[in-house]
Amino acid sequence: MTTVFIDGESGTTGLGIRERLGNMPRVTLKSLPHDRRRDPAARRDIMAEVDLIVLCLPDDAAKESAAMAASLGNAAPKVLDASTAHRIDPDWVYGFAEMTPDQADRIAKAKNVANPGCYPTGAIGLIRPLVDAGLIPPDYPITINAVSGYSGGGKAMIQAHDETHGPAFELYGLGLEHKHVPETALYGGLTRRPIFVPSVGHYLKGMLVSVPLHLDTLPGKPTGADLRAALEARYAGCDLVRVVPPQKDGKLEPQALNDTDRLELTVHANEKHRQAVLVARLDNLGKGASGAAVQNIALMLGLHTGVGARELTHG
Questions:
Q1: Alpha-carbon distance 292 to 308, whole Å?
Q2: What are the strands of the beta sheet with 112-114, ordered from one edge?
Q3: DSSP SS3 for 276
Q4: Residue 142: half-sphere exposure toward Cβ, Cα within 13 Å
Q5: Neighbours of 34 (CB within 10 A)
Q6: pLDDT tens-digit readout, 223-234
Q7: Is 238 a catalytic residue?
Q8: Cα 109 to the center of its chain, rounded Å
Q9: Could you give the CA distance from residue 71 to residue 66 in angstroms, rounded to a whole number?
Q10: Widest CA span of the chain, in angstroms?
């Protein structure tokens, strides 16, 4: 048996992680009474008792909690941080297991792992293999457009949509300072900062991330088939990340993968006009949050030799 403490278990991501871990027979969850969750001594004591802690906290609180765990020295547990606090920290391993061929092994050996953001999971999943294959230059001017269900916006946005129904659709982050851009650039292998335009729709969960490309501006002027081949080569044999054919009607809706931990990638190309749009589809609370966290927890604790979170949580 292994033991896990979720620091911040009452939030959306924390609740999702708790539900998934509850289905894993070799994991015991430890909790603090509600009135002791802000007690530093109580939190430090429970950290010393467990094999791994999950941080589902605001960034500043996550940094404090990680420092508290590190202060335990040889008794320190492994740490998975679901916040943005450590995603580009060189001392933390990035928790996108399929990002490169050796990433799952790096996660399994790591003491500290940063869970990816939901938007970056889709964007990096599309961009990184093409940069590695030399099909997209690192300094290419990438634009990323994305839409998410309102659950990705946290408690305030969830409450606004649940109580007042919110707008049907809105762009946000138009100051171009979204917190997910640094990790997208770093782990996407980009040296030029991408333009990222997120949006939210009036539905609970489900996400589409798209990257438009002018094919004749890329090295070697690749075809859509070349892009698909590079993606298929990267994710061959992956349980959760798959490259799928585009739908014949030229449409994609964001909720088809809800309640799964899968990530689907498609290449939509028009060879006549030499243009393409890469699209990633995922559940922002699944592979974009809690599902990825449980996948990383299983790797860090040696609970499964593969990287399929669905296999883990269902036996």
A1: 9
A2: 27-30, 2-7, 52-55, 78-81, 112-114, 93-94
A3: strand
A4: 30
A5: 8
A6: 999 999 999 999
A7: no
A8: 19
A9: 9
A10: 65
Extract the tokens encoding 18. 């708790």
Name the helix (H) or strand (E) containing 97: none
Q: List % helix, strand, coil for the chain (3-state, nearest 5).
A: 40, 20, 40
24, 118, 131, 135: the catalytic one is 118
Token look-up 């399994």 returns 108
Q: Which residues contact 170 (CB under 8 A, 6 or more apart)?
A: 199, 200
User: 53-96, pLDDT tens digit by residue?
Assistant: 999 999 999 999 999 999 999 999 999 999 999 999 999 999 99
User: What's the half-sphere exposure (Cβ side, CA atoms, 13 Å) at 71?
Assistant: 12
Indicate whether this model's pTM tops 0.90: yes
CA 243 centroid distance within chain: 17
Q: Sign (positive/negative) of CA torsion 84, 87, 187, 16?
A: negative
- Bridge partners of residue 146, in order along the sequence: 198, 209
The answer to whether residue 163 scores a pLDDT higher than 90 is no
Tokens at 247, concatenated: 């739908």
Q: For residue range 211-224, what is the model confidence (pLDDT) as tens digits?
A: 999 999 999 999 99
